[in-house]
Structures are given as C-alpha cells and as structure tokens.
C-alpha cells in the first residue's frame, strides 16, 4: 500500500465519526482533501452535514465534491473538525501549517467540540520538531519578528534557523488571511508548551503551528491498519488502541 492509500484509510476511518446533522470543520492538506472527497460521496448518498472550510483550497474542493458549506459567522460552534497534521506526538500534540493554513485551522478546531486528526503513520513522532514549525506573522516588520522568534527559541535552548517561507518564484508566500509564514528549523522540541507560550508573546506573531490540547483523537493509518491515539485528561499520557 502507498502513503496515499494510508491517508485514504485514515480519512475513511474518520467518516465513521460523522453523524447526520453535524456541523463540521474541514481541514486542509492532502489527507484532509481525501476526507472532503469521501464526505462528498456520502452527501451525494443523502447525508446531511454542513462544513466550514479551513482554507480557500478546501472551500474549492468542498464545492467540487458537493459538500454544503457555511461559515463561522453563521455557525460559530461546530461539532467536529477533521484535519491532517505534519507531526503527531504520543500526547496528541501536533505540528500543523505545512500548507500555510494553520491560522484558520486553529480557529476552526478551537470552535469545534471535537477534533480528529487523520494521518499516515509516518507523521507520528516521539518528539515534535523534525518538521519545521510554521509560524504565521504579520508582513509588517517580519524581519524583526523573525529575529524575535529566533531569540525566543534560543532562550529555550532551540538554536535552529527561522526562515521566511517563499514560493517557487522566490516571493514570500501569502496566507489566505494575508500574512507571511516563518518556518522554525528547531529540531527536537522537548517543551512545546513553553515554546508555544513564548511565540504567542511576540508582537507580530499571529499564530503558530503547535496545536496543543486541541486534538481529541488521531486516526493513524499504516501497514497494520488504522490505529487510534486518544486524548486523555490533562496530565496523563494519550492512550493507543486498535480502531
Ligand atoms: O497547513 C496545512 C495543514 O496544517 C495540513 O493539515 C498539514 O500540512 C498536513 O498536510 P498533509 O495531509 O498534506 O500532509
């Protein structure tokens, strides 16, 4: 089986958690796109749900696959968000934002009663940080903000570079909300909560890609099938079981 097959298996497993009438947050990225496609097929069969897309690309996909859409303005409280991740640790802490959608993804996940992460097994890591941490910043003063991020990380013992993300034409990428993205090449992030707090305290940082305490369940697909990692009450480790 290919990585694509595993992503599809995780997306299929998430569909079992969707109930008629639900208001759904629709994530961004290649795995979330498969969920939107499968959801569209269920809608075509008569399932009634509405979705709030976390990016313009997901909006387009949902429209293409016939998933009815709404907005957080119309529906400020959602039942369930299903989204991918760049990294998942055993305590269900995530790095997200590889596709530059982290701000809307975090707003939508925060507005949802539950968040389910769908991913192939390569996304599961013992410690976050091999994937560069995306940080969404206001374009004004972005070099000053970049340096402030490097300093804050260094104070926590993280010495990696922080780089402005650029498109293939070398121009800084612009997010759906008109911001820039910095990527923090920190390596191993042993204390993600401390880094999250330090980043949030920097003027110019809009949001960072550390998702802590947001995910309730991760559905991880690999050669052995789909495995679930469930959130446990604060202070205890996430628990694994076979889905
Ligand atoms: O900004 C993008 C999102 O956080 C994605 O959910 C994340 O990058 C995972 O994407 P994929 O499923 O394509 O690996």
TrEMBL record:
Keywords: Isomerase
InterPro entries (UniProt xref): NagB/RpiA_transferase-like, Ribose5P_isomerase_typA_subgr, Ribose5P_isomerase_type_A
Pathway assignment: Carbohydrate degradation; pentose phosphate pathway; D-ribose 5-phosphate from D-ribulose 5-phosphate (non-oxidative stage): step 1/1
Catalytic reaction annotation: aldehydo-D-ribose 5-phosphate = D-ribulose 5-phosphate
Listed GO biological process terms: D-ribose metabolic process; pentose-phosphate shunt, non-oxidative branch
Cellular component annotations (GO), alphabetically ordered: cytosol
Gene3D superfamilies recorded: 3.30.70.260, 3.40.50.1360
EC top class named in words: isomerase
Residue sites binding substrate per the record: 28-31, 83-86, 96-99, 123
Catalytic-site annotation from UniProt: 105
Domain of life of the source: Bacteria
Record has Isomerase as a keyword: yes
The protein's Enzyme Commission number: 5.3.1.6
GO molecular function, one term: ribose-5-phosphate isomerase activity
HAMAP family linked to this entry: Rib_5P_isom_A
Function of the molecule: Catalyzes the reversible conversion of ribose-5-phosphate to ribulose 5-phosphate.
Subunit structure: Homodimer.
Protein family according to the UniProt entry: Belongs to the ribose 5-phosphate isomerase family.
Name of the protein this chain belongs to: Ribose-5-phosphate isomerase A
Originating species: Methylopila turkensis
């Amino acid at each position: 089986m290919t990585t694509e097959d595993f992503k599809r298996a995780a997306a299929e497993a998430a569909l079992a958690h969707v109930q008629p009438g639900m208001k759904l947050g629709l994530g961004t990225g290649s795995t979330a796109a498969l969920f939107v496609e499968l959801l569209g097929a269920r809608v075509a069969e008569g399932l009634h749900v509405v979705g709030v897309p976390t990016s313009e690309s997901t909006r387009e996909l949902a429209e293409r696959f016939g998933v009815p859409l709404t907005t957080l303005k119309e529906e400020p409280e959602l039942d369930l968000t299903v989204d991918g991740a760049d990294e998942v640790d055993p305590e269900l802490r995530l790095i997200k934002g590889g596709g530059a959608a982290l701000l809307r993804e975090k707003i939508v996940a925060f507005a949802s009663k539950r968040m389910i992460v769908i991913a192939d097994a390569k996304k599961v890591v013992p410690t976050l940080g091999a994937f560069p941490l995306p940080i969404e910043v206001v374009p004004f003063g972005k070099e000053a903000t970049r340096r402030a991020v490097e300093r804050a990380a260094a104070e926590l013992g993280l010495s990696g570079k922080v780089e402005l993300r650029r498109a293939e034409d070398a121009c800084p990428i612009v997010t759906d909300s008109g911001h820039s993205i910095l990527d923090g090449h920190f390596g191993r992030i042993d204390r993600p909560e401390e880094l999250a707090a330090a980043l949030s305290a920097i003027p110019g940082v809009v949001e960072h890609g550390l998702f802590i305490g947001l995910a309730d369940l991760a559905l991880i697909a690999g050669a052995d099938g789909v495995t679930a990692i469930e959130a446990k009450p604060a202070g205890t480790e996430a628990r694994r079981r076979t889905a």
